[in-house]
Amino acid sequence: MAFLTNDKLVIVGAAGMIGSNMAQTALMMGLTNNICLYDVFSPEGVAEEMRQSGFDNVCITATTNAEEAFRDAKYIISSGGAPRKEGMTREDLLAGNCKIAEELGQNIKKFCPDVKHVVIIFNPADLTGLVTLLYSGLKPNQVTTLAGLDTTRLQSALAKKFGVMQSEIYGCATYGGHGEQMAVFGSHVTIKGRKLTDIIGTAEFPAEEWEQMKKDVTQGGAAIIKLRGRSSFQSPAYLSVEMIRSAMGGEPFRFPVGTYVSNEKYDHIMMAMKTTLDQNGAHFEVPQGLPEENAKLDASYEHLCKMRDELVTLNIVPPIAEWNKINPNL
After folding, report:
1. 136: part of which helix (H) or strand (E)?
2. Is there a contact between 127 and 213 (Cβ–Cβ < 8 Å)?
3. pLDDT tens readout for residues 16-55
């Protein structure tokens, strides 16, 4: 098998369901012949399963030691936080998982400051990604968070509604926070060449049905927990490995990612934008939709700011004015 790179990929939280699925997906995609599985709980069982799957010419290591895991790492995907349980929102995980993100960032700065790209997927991803970026000392385009899962939920909902393949739906996107306050943009969507905005409000797709679909998309994670009895793991695993593949030089990522934004409108925040993720990292532009979509994006930003400010109150991060002392790139 030809690999995209020989660089070391570290999968954090590898003993869990998301982490083990990420390991298998990365191996099936042929991303690298150097994979390290890291977890505070021993990931050796996962490593053994991967070895026994018969992947050729790959070095698979497993460790509970942070220095061993991160030393010489060039790519990192982390699902290493507590999962959501039924009845919980992503925000309920804020304090505990952001402390884990702080430690992750510090380990990156200490053991692998030359890492090329880091993907964060443990919730609330916008905040854990922001904290990781702050304490890692990395550049903003080197740390991204999982946001594409919300877009695929919109795409799949529309595909089911109109009886078409997901590939026949273009322009789906959700922006802002990876949570129930996300902004669902429908104004750029086409379904087999038909503009979604021309269909909404007709007998085929009443406006109230579209409103319910948007609500269902924002609560898609909670729906998976009810359907499966556990937090989603296959879809975030697959999409996050696609993200790191793009950073390794594979095909550009298909969906929005969470990225660091600091401009005249959105300041010192991690949120999903209209992004390109490739070997040069993440680059973004602020999406423009209908006035109500833009307003929803602004509201999502305000919600993220409240959670970010709560991290200051909890002493997980210092006041924004002091961030540059920790990470000169911010």
Report:
1. helix 125-136
2. no
3. 999 999 999 999 999 999 999 999 999 999 999 999 999 9
